[in-house]
Amino acid sequence: MARLAGKVAIISGAAQGMGAATARLFAAEGAKVVLGDVLEEKGRAVAAEIGDAAHFEKLDVRSEEDWQRVVAAATGKFGKLDILVNNAAITHFGAVDEIRKEDAERVLDINVIGTLMGVKHAIPALKANGRGVIINISSVDGLRGCNGLIAYTASKWAVRGMSKSLAYELGPSGIRVVSIHPGGVNTDMGNPTGEVGESLNSRYTTVPLQRIGEPEEIARASLFIASDEASYISGAEIAVDGGWTAGRFEPHLPGAPASLAVA
Ligand SMILES: NC(=O)c1ccc[n+]([C@@H]2O[C@H](COP(=O)([O-])OP(=O)(O)OC[C@H]3O[C@@H](n4cnc5c(N)ncnc54)[C@H](O)[C@@H]3O)[C@@H](O)[C@H]2O)c1
């Protein structure tokens, strides 16, 4: 099936992880994809593996010049722009009383301002196209709080909030804007030590599905939102998190998994 036949997409942070999985899936579904990332060698390798439907451009999402070049590459090489996936981000772990200003600023600069600059520079091409989709990758940490992730949480709530405002600003131009909120995902960011099997999934006993997610599972949600099947979805927040933000297991009540049950 070619659910994105004839579409052109830009995906930031596409050298690895979820961004690379999304680029592969979009291309397999008929899209032309421009991959952007600061990791040039890895990004070029992913684009080469995809083939003629893909093109890599060096992109630091903080740079307006880089965004202009990436959008020009999409319209110049593939003729137009239909889809922007703002996927690039970094995380930072630290308690609030220890966090350094420069670390907090870096997280907000890349995750929030980087996303905003992507939108700003994609808008002319999306408007010229007459319609479009912007997918902003937030997180479960854009839906709730979490200790040790204060700057990242602030950034992902900002991405969620911006997406809703953008849905209003851009809807009249036929541009849909959606935030996607992954739970724990098996990438460098979600599994930096490369754990596998039981030792990995044992960290997810509070997730209803009892396991980490795979990058392809998030990519499939982005595929649906990017496709015309989602033509009336805008301003929505889509959790792809194994049920993690649905509520909680109550260990004292029936139905909790054995790993959490209280004797
Ligand atoms: N992995 C998880 O558990 C998880 C959970 C929720 C949300 N997310 C979000 O999913 C998205 C993808 O994350 P991932 O898990 O694939 O992580 P990842 O670290 O594997 O990939 C992130 C990519 O972004 C790129 N990047 C970082 N800074 C950049 C910059 N300034 N300009 C351009 N590219 C830059 C990196 O080089 C990398 O290729 C991110 O927005 C992340 O916050 C991840």
Q: Can you walk me through this structure?
A:
By secondary structure, the protein is an alpha/beta fold. The chain has one domain (8-243): NAD(P)-binding Rossmann-like Domain (Rossmann fold, 3-Layer(aba) Sandwich). The protein has seven helices and seven strands, in the order E-H-E-H-E-H-E-H-E-H-E-H-H-E. It has helices spanning 17-28, 40-50, 64-78, 101-129, 150-170, 197-201, 215-226; strands spanning 8-12, 32-37, 54-58, 83-86, 132-137, 175-182, 237-240. The longest helix has 29 residues, at 101-129. The radius of gyration is 18 Å and the shape is globular. The protein binds nicotinamide-adenine-dinucleotide. Nicotinamide-adenine-dinucleotide is lined by residues 12-13, 15-19, 37-39, 59-62, 87-90, 110, 114, 137, 139, 182, 184-185, 187-190.
